[in-house]
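Sequence in, structure out.
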Amino acid sequence: MKDFNQLFQHRRKAAYQKGSRYAIAIARTLNLFPALFAILLLVLYRKLLQEWLPPDFPVAWVLAAILTAVLSFIRFRTYFQPADPFFLAPDPSTVSRYMQRAFTYNAIIQCLIVLAWMIVLSPLFIQRLGDGVAWVMAVVVLLTFKVFNLWLRFHELLAERPHWTDSVIRWGTNAFITIWLFHGQFFGLPLLVTLVWIGLLIAYQRRRQPPRGYFSWQRLVAEESATVARYYRLASQFIDVPQVGNEVRIRRGWQWLNRFPARRRENTYFYLYQRTFLRYREPFGVTLRLTIMTGIALVLTESLPLLAVCLYFLGLWMTAVQLPWIRRIHRFQPWFRLYPLPEQQKTGDLSRLVWGILLVESTVTLLLPAATWTDPFPLLLLLLVGGWIFATVFALWRIPRQNRRRKVVPTSR
């Protein structure tokens, strides 16, 4: 076992080595597609700034929405493992040093993410909102609040009884800060109000802080496992990866959907896959988030129809490529091989479920822009038809075709 004082660095290095191996394997399967896609995005972004962006486009609101999400989404990496021998460290100061290194590492990574987003958005900022000095000041403010958000998130993970209001307060605070910042009204009375509010949040978190040296190991391990599972699910769309865990959640508000498939033999796998989708943390969570985020993105891009079309189908694609994970969750269960059902029924039932999910998402995503756009037709109608066609092609053609390609045919000896 590595020395406890060097354990975090060792695990971080091992994680980066494993991640680089997966990245290289994915790059080999995609060939030049990522580079071509990046070039296409750069060309579209430049054309957006130079030709397509109308004068009345709400740049400040768009930047506020993007940076609110960037500030609020935080995955605190600790590299903890289930049944970790580190939990038995005899010296509490060793545990504290480990967590300090973890916090410093996460702060650097999260600040780099904010900086990368601000660099990407800098042409839009400088063209519509301010000069280079204003951009630098905005970066400093955002980096400061990103570290503060990381501190809040860390204490949320340490809390013995976490509550959903913690996330609501953090998201709301970030929304107000970014709105003030990108509307040019932050450096004044809002700054004083923000400082007072931050002081209240710090006092609130310190009152809820557990005893010194106490860590909610189960929550930290669950957070780390969920993060690793996301990386594996993404990589599994391109290469074969090991089976990883997935948290089960009882969503009582959605269980009524399980009454719809008739309890017949031909619906066996469909019923199993539907219950899996509704009960597991992912891909249900990512489907819900992408539906909401795509709908909001469409609301903000009413004056940019080409960009709205790209965002709509990008959201559908990002959901679709993660839905086959529903079947992979059960791929090691032995009763699948014992139950007397045709093997091809697994693929057929999964295709039916994915088809239904994508049909619902492609429709629900358009409800918000339909209610807010001044002239929603005929573009939204065309998007709806295109979304249904995409759902049909992906679920009823691509999934069976992908399953046939991955099937291993045993050779005779």
